[in-house]
Design goal:
The protein has about 475 residues and is of the alpha/beta class. It has helices at about 35-45, 50-55, 90-110, 150-170, 175-180, 185-190, 200-215, 220-230, 235-250, 265, 270-285, 305-310, 325-335, 365-370, 380-385, 390-400, 420-425, 435-445, and strands at about 10, 20-25, 30-35, 60-65, 75-80, 115, 125, 130-135, 140, 290-300, 315-320, 340-345, 375, 405-415, 450-455, 460-470. This is Methyltransferase family protein.
């Protein structure tokens, strides 16, 4: 630490490559490079292919700056990604587009004499619905006769999850959430037996890959590289392999599955008057405070209110539990060219925990999601009644996404509302005596100042605008 960086904080997820490490300094994202990595960076920065990728927005904007932090030969400053997400929070189409970008970058790098050390899905983030490659330290000069070092990671964190979704209709998210390094080839092999083993991509990238790993389990990396060189592996063959992977990944599409929640706007029971009044209230709440850098829409469904928030916020993170709904929203946002909304798949009653090394390598959703505005519309009753989360816990959880001055826009669905009655019909009688509007208002007041309340015309739902006290 020097006087130039009095509050330098190491990024917990950046420690596996000793040649470089990411740090945070205020709002700046920095990367320290050792002597060899600094020389490789300068060669990379001077290349035409890299400049073209940055100009196209495919790679995060990066410049060398000074002075370097202690122990490092050089320091880079990266553009700040609006919100860091994890692959197990993405929809199928998002993971597929991220995989295609990774392969596009590698295909551009190889003819220019570069490759990437890694193939992890965690090397990619999002500007809205546009994927961007962020691991600049992964670029390294290619050596003829050597395979892509990131192939195994690419399979485990990108290709295999896509194969599960496209070929078996399985949700890949539980796998990636449970295993930070992704799905092993041996696990995939056991799921693709019989006729399944002949589906596109499976013979080569699952069964052959698994067999090669088992055969070379005791061989050193240098020995494997030597075998490939002796077999005639070349840069041209590497490029051809990447082209083949691109063709395969493009085929691994999966249309959004049918879901009750896709039609929720039509079936949720709002009258035309309720809907119009709710939108007016939310719009006014979004413009009532200072500049909004980050807004959260918790329980976003089809993104109606996320789109409203995007008119006033630099970035909106729209969280929805149903993968099919998020996948459709993502595709719609891509088609519209919307750049301010990031849709994510997450069960709000079981949000993403911290994971990886020491539980902090991949930060929890709660630790990442500190927002200027939090929208919680038609979500409290689903948590409190549908998932049996005590109302004080729900309110404290919502308040935890903010800081002093954060605006919370929240909807309380009264017990007599048709949706509440539907949820209560499957519960024991009088199980939720504390689920009352007066109690909800009392709890809100313990976390901030209730500036406005508004009863929708139907009379069974109330909207609140709260300024949190932190």
């Amino acid at each position: 630490m020097t006087s130039a960086y009095p509050e330098l904080r190491a990024e917990p997820a950046s420690f596996r490559d000793p040649a470089n490490r990411v740090f945070h300094h205020g709002d700046e994202v920095l990367r320290g490079l050792d002597e060899r990595a600094a020389a490789e960076w300068r060669a990379l920065a001077g290349s035409d292919f890299f400049a073209a990728l940055v100009a196209a927005g495919k790679v995060c904007d990066t410049v060398e700056t000074s002075p370097a932090p202690p122990g490092w030969s050089a320091v880079l400053r990266h553009e700040r990604i609006p919100f860091v997400s994890h692959p197990y929070e993405w929809s199928h189409a998002m993971l597929r587009d991220a995989a295609l970008l990774h392969l596009d970058i590698l295909r551009a790098a190889l003819p220019a004499g570069f490759t990437t050390k890694d193939g992890s899905a965690y090397n990619l983030q999002w500007r809205g619905v546009e994927p961007v490659f962020v691991d600049i330290g992964s670029f390294t000069p290619v050596r003829d006769g050597e395979p892509w070092a990131g192939y195994r990671q690419f399979c485990q964190t990108l290709l295999y999850p896509l194969l599960l979704g496209a070929h078996l209709g399985l949700d890949f998210r539980p796998w990636l959430r449970a295993q930070v390094d992704g799905i092993e080839a041996d696990q995939m092999r056991r799921m693709f037996t019989g006729r399944r083993r002949f589906r596109p991509g499976v013979p080569t990238h699952v069964h052959l890959h698994d067999a090669m790993q088992r055969r070379n389990a005791r061989a050193s990396t240098a020995e494997v590289r030597g075998q490939l060189r002796d077999a005639g592996y070349s840069r041209d063959l590497a490029v051809a392999t990447i082209r083949g992977l691109q063709r395969l990944v493009r085929r691994l599409d999966r249309p959004p599955p049918a879901s009750h929640w896709i039609d929720y706007r039509r079936t949720c029971g709002y009258t035309t008057e309720d809907r119009a009044a709710k939108e007016c209230f939310v719009d006014a709440a979004l413009t009532a405070g200072p500049r909004t850098r980050l807004a959260l829409d918790l329980g976003a469904n089809d993104g109606r209110y996320a789109r409203l928030a995007a008119r006033h916020a630099e970035q909106v993170v729209a969280v929805e539990q149903d993968p099919g709904v998020v996948d459709r929203l993502y595709r719609d946002l891509r088609a519209e060219g919307t750049q301010r909304i990031l849709p994510l798949v997450m069960d709000l009653a079981d949000p993403s925990p911290g994971g990886g090394w020491r539980g902090v390598e991949r930060a929890s959703f709660t630790n990442r999601a500190r927002a200027d505005v939090v929208l919680a519309l038609a979500v409290v009753h689903h948590l409190a009644i549908g998932r049996n989360v005590p109302l004080p816990e729900v309110v404290a959880w919502l308040a935890g996404f903010g800081r002093s001055g954060t605006r919370l826009v929240v909807e309380f669905v009264h017990p007599e509302d048709p949706m509440s009655r539907r949820l209560l019909a499957n519960k024991p009688e009088n199980i939720f005596p504390g689920y009352r509007r007066d109690e909800f208002e009392r709890l809100l007041a313990t976390h901030g100042h209730v500036e406005e309340r508004f009863h929708l015309p139907s009379g069974s739902r109330t909207l609140y605008r709260v300024v949190l006290s932190g």
